[in-house]
Each structure stands twice: as C-alpha cells, then as structure tokens.
Amino acid sequence: MTMATRDxxxxxxxxxxxxxxxxILSHLRELVHDACPDVEETIKWGVPHFAHHxxxxxxxxxxxxxxxxxxxxxxxFEDAAKSTEAMxxxxxxxxxxxxxxxxxxxxxxxxxAALNESGVKVARPPKDPxxxxxxxxxxxxxxxxxxxxxxxxxxxxxxxxxxxxxYVEWIIDAKREVTRASRLATTIEWxxxxxxxxxxxxx
Length: 203
Hints:
Helix content is 49%, strand content 11%. By secondary structure, it is an alpha+beta fold. The protein has 2 domains: 8-118, Aspartate Aminotransferase, domain 1, CATH 3.90.1150; 129-201, no CATH class. Helix 2 (21-35) crosses helix 4 (102-118) and helix 8 packs antiparallel against helix 9. The longest helix is centred in the middle third of the chain and has 17 residues, at 102-118. It is elongated.
C-alpha cells in the first residue's frame, strides 16, 4: 500500500504565504490527506499539487486571495458554472468561511481520486479541426433517436459542448455496428435520466 507523502517544499510554501493564507492552505492540505490517505504531494509550476494515480488538485496563494481546484473539475463538479474568477473552481478564497464544508470538499477529493483510479479522461477539444468538427456534429443515428425521445433530446440540448462531445465520441468510435447500436441505446437511456456520459464518476 502506498503511503501518503508530505513534501517539505509545501511546508515552506505555506510558511512564506501571507498570514491570511496560511490557515487556508494548511486546512485544505489536511482535508486532502483525510479524504485520500495515499495522496502524494509535489510542487508543479511553483505551487502545491496533490497526486493519486495522476494529478488530483492544487492550491495556491496570492497577495489577496487563495485558490484551490481540481484537474478534472468538469467531472468532479455537477455544477458546470463553478466560479472561474481565480485558478480552480472556488473563486477567490480569502478566509476559511469562503470554502464549502469540510465534508463537501472531502467528497470532491474522493470523487477526483476515483476518477483517476478508473482512468477516466476529461474530454478535451481536439486540436485536429476535422476531428473537432466531427465531434461537434450530431451523427444521423443519434439525431434520429433524439427526435424520437423528447426528454433525451432536451437533456442533450441543455448539456455543455463537452458533455455532448463525450456522447458523440463514444458512439462514433465504436468499432462494430452492434457496439454502436448498443452505445446509442445506452446514450438515449442515460440522457432520458438526465445523466452525462461519465455520470458514474460524478455521483
């Protein structure tokens, strides 16, 4: 079993931070360790990061605020409109009262760890213009199925572009017709229930 590691560079980072930031950073650090006992600490791009089967989250302090965020934030959070004022999903953190409850933060950490353990990737907009256009277009079979199911269509249309691409990519990347048909049926079923493609990892 991998043991959690604490990087002395993070101790130094916290010690050099502004007085208001020290309790915030220390508290976040402990919550991450509580939620993911095997987490490893490191410094990347000059700020503290936490890793477990890949990067989980990071925190940073600035002159007047702190920031805390998850690498797979679009999958960790059900709320797609999370603040983007500062690095991370919690906006500008100036005191402990700006943070969600300890229980909520630890649930986010556990969710992020589960995503990494399962090897789930965040859908990134493809660099290839042709591939991007392919994923942004709704394939004919999916479009036909959505026309037949109002609830599924409304869910799909309300989704963010990345959530729509998750389903399109899953369907068009099927190697066999039978696989594609099965994925299409599952897609409609999950959309009817209001679920994103990776719903198993965000609940």
